[in-house]
Write a structure and sequence with these properties.
Radius of gyration: 13 Å
Number of domains: 1
Shape: globular
Order of helices and strands: HHHH
Number of helices: 4
Largest sheet: none
Structural class: mainly alpha
Helix content: over 70%
Length: 78
């Protein structure tokens, strides 16, 4: 059986996304599965996947807020 190792950038991306979705859930009083579905439905997940590098350099409070704003602009909770 062949073992594959993630490159550093992919590993960093997975680590950040694995951290920020539960952080988003906690900040907006959601369960993690509910937050994932919300982010997916309102464009936050696509934004996160595309801009994770910039978001991870920011304070996590601002990163979560930026993701929330994308969702709000796409019809998420106001």
């Amino acid at each position: 059986m062949e073992t594959k190792v993630l490159d550093k950038q992919t590993s960093d991306k997975v680590s950040f996304i694995s951290y920020i979705i539960p952080k988003f859930a906690a900040d907006y009083k959601m369960g993690v599965p509910q937050a994932y579905q919300y982010l997916k439905q309102y464009g936050g997940l696509a934004f996160l996947m595309e801009h994770w590098w910039a978001l991870h350099t920011d304070n996590d409070i601002w990163a979560v807020h930026d993701i929330y704003e994308i969702c709000r602009e796409n019809g998420g909770m106001k």
